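Figure 6 in text form: structure in, sequence out.
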């Protein structure tokens, strides 16, 4: 689908149908509709443009990881009731914000994201490893500018995805490890093209990647990551990190320390 064709998309969707939830459970991903209005997206895009313009020299825009620790304004999006209602349909009523990350690939030299699973990346930090990522298209995201791709059903092969990585060139890629090719059947990969304001979801064990952005258009996605409140977070492996109980109650028997959601947003 061309970039021009994908620009228009439908009304805001705030419900997950039983068929969509079943598809997600079976395939480990779901392409969803528009989750934020055009006005909400215009404000977010302006904010992200300013964040990118303010990056220090040498800092790549693909690497704007955990920006909400410093930028309370982002909680408007991360805690939006429409988002939490949709997340609740997948993980239940007790919802913790695990993390967030802007991955903005500039036009022309945007870096690839190697094949990986998030579960392998986060390692021992979470127990059990149950995270759903809402990938929000800040810009249109197409095969031309490096949309995310998934291998349907790969979340069922978590032992493959844990151990079988090899090094790739970090100068060309967002990070330096990739699932070995014998564990990825590229012929099964699904391209998840989105218009701005639309989103897709993926499971922590779903194999995914994205190509470099050699097109003339930026491709920025905001990964918004949530987990059910029975998941235990073990601090230490990821440096300074905060988690936030957004809805419902703690179910991890007091193990987790939750940071209060900032009020001044
Ligand atoms: O934005 C991309 O292309 C990859 C995103 C990703 O790796 C993730 O959401 O876990």
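Output sequence:
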């Amino acid at each position: 689908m061309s970039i021009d064709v994908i620009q228009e998309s439908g009304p805001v969707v705030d419900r997950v149908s039983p068929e969509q939830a079943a598809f997600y459970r079976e395939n480990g991903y779901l392409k969803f509709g528009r989750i934020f209005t055009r006005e909400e997206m215009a404000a977010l895009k302006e904010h992200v443009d300013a964040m990118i313009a303010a990056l220090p020299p040498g800092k790549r825009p693909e690497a704007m990881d955990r920006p909400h620790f410093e930028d309370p304004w982002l909680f408007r999006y991360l805690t939006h009731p429409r988002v939490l209602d949709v997340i609740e349909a997948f993980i239940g009523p007790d919802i913790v914000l695990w993390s967030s990350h802007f991955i903005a690939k500039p036009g022309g030299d945007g870096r690839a994201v190697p094949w990986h699973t998030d579960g392998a990346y986060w390692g021992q930090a979470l127990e059990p490893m149950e995270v759903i990522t809402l990938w929000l298209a800040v810009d249109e995201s197409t095969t031309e500018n490096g949309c995310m791709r998934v291998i349907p059903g790969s979340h069922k092969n978590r032992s493959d995805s844990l151990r079988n990585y090899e090094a790739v060139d970090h100068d060309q890629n967002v990070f330096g490890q990739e699932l070995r090719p014998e564990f990825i059947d590229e012929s099964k990969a699904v391209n998840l093209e989105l218009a701005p304001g639309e989103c897709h979801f993926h499971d922590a064990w779903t194999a995914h990647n994205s190509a470099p952005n050699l097109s003339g258009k930026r491709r920025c996605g905001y990964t918004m990551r949530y987990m059910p409140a029975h998941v235990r977070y073990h601090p230490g492996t990821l440096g300074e990190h905060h988690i936030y109980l957004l809805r419902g109650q703690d179910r991890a028997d007091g193990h987790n320390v939750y940071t209060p959601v900032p009020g001044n947003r």
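Caption detail: Residues 1-7 have pLDDT under 50 and may be disordered.
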